[in-house]
């Protein structure tokens, strides 16, 4: 349907004007978006909304004909609560004035008690399918990566209080446990899986404490992206060298013909050796000697690094 606009927009036959609270790049296709100029309107500052509320109280088009008593501090509460949305602020002002107490002089008195009764719950800016969804999950991921438990818990609460599916958050934590911690703390993945199960069994709001436990654990755990980088490098070679055959020495030979063709010939069974190591090459010939996994010196990965280095040294010595 959007493509139908293209020739008319290009010819100038129509002027296309659209307004949306969503990020256009999520809703408008690239062909149409490239022919448009996008203007981003940011949320209003609290000071701007405060001016707007005062104008609404004094202007005859607003409440100028009413006798209203409300302090600047109370107006600021409404302004801060609106999250930069002028329409929301005006709707709240209308509500608190309607519910205000009328004194003997005919003045409508609005105080903190009235405002608190009307502001039962703040509407958080969050769209589970839009830009803010990705912004906040990114903020959570990067806060955990930066070992900041306070920021991590905050962004977690922003998602959950806005109605995000706790299982979605739990799945992202599972990914984080291997992408950013990996072998530096192998228990991180166990914690993430257990928290996912807890969320599955309990749901919200009870599982919020389990997710909090998980993001704090991930934040404080030692970090390593060695597994993430290892797969990335291997995937690059796999995609650019798809014709590389499996070395015949490590192929199975379930049939007589395959054995006669040499499948598995010369295979070395590591368990038959004292060191449980062999000098057999398992990579394709063009990739022999290639290193994908480069362990760091963080947490438990020290042990894996020492083991990895020892294996490489052993193979070098015995191949000589």
Molecular structure report:
The protein is an all-alpha fold. It is built from 15 helices and three strands. Strands 1-3-2 form a three-stranded mixed beta sheet, with no helix packed on it. Helix 4 (46-58) crosses helix 5, helix 5 packs across helix 6 (86-98) and helix 9 (149-161) runs antiparallel to helix 12 (208-220). It is elongated, with a radius of gyration of 31 Å. The model has no long low-confidence stretch (mean pLDDT 86).
Rg of Cα set: 31 Å
Strand order of the largest sheet: 1-3-2
Mean pLDDT level = 86
Query: Oligomeric status of the shown chains?
Result: single chain
Largest sheet: 3 strands, mixed
Looking at the structure, what is the overall shape? elongated
Summarize the structure.
The chain is mainly alpha-helical and 320 residues long.
């Amino acid at each position: 349907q959007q493509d139908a606009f293209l020739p008319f927009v290009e010819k100038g036959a129509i002027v296309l004007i659209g307004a949306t609270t969503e990020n256009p790049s999520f809703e408008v296709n690239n062909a149409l978006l490239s022919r448009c100029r996008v203007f981003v309107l940011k949320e209003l500052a609290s000071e701007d909304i405060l001016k707007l509320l005062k104008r609404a109280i004094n202007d005859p088009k607003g409440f100028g004909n009413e006798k209203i008593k409300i302090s600047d501090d109370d107006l600021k509460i409404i302004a801060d609560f609106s999250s930069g949305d002028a329409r929301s602020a005006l709707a709240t002002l209308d509500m608190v004035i309607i519910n205000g107490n009328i004194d003997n002089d005919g003045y409508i008195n609005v105080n903190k008690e009235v405002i608190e009764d009307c502001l039962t719950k703040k509407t958080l800016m969050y769209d589970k399918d839009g830009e803010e969804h990705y912004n906040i999950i990114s903020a959570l991921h990067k806060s955990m990566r930066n070992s900041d438990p306070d920021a991590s818990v905050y962004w977690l609460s922003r998602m959950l209080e806005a109605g995000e599916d706790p299982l979605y958050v739990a799945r992202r934590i599972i990914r984080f446990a291997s992408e950013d911690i990996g072998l530096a703390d192998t228990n991180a993945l166990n914690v993430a899986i257990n928290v996912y199960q807890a969320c599955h069994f309990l749901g919200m709001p009870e599982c919020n404490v389990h997710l909090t436990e998980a993001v704090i654990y991930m934040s404080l755990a030692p970090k390593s992206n060695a597994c993430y980088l290892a797969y990335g490098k291997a995937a690059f070679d796999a995609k650019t060298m798809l014709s590389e055959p499996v070395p015949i020495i490590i192929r199975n030979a379930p049939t007589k013909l395959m054995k006669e063709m040499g499948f598995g010939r010369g295979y070395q069974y590591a368990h038959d050796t004292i060191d449980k190591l062999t000098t057999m090459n398992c990579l394709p010939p063009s990739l022999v000697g290639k290193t994908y996994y480069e362990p760091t010196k963080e947490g438990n990965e020290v042990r894996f690094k020492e083991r990895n280095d020892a294996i490489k040294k052993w193979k070098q010595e015995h191949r000589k």
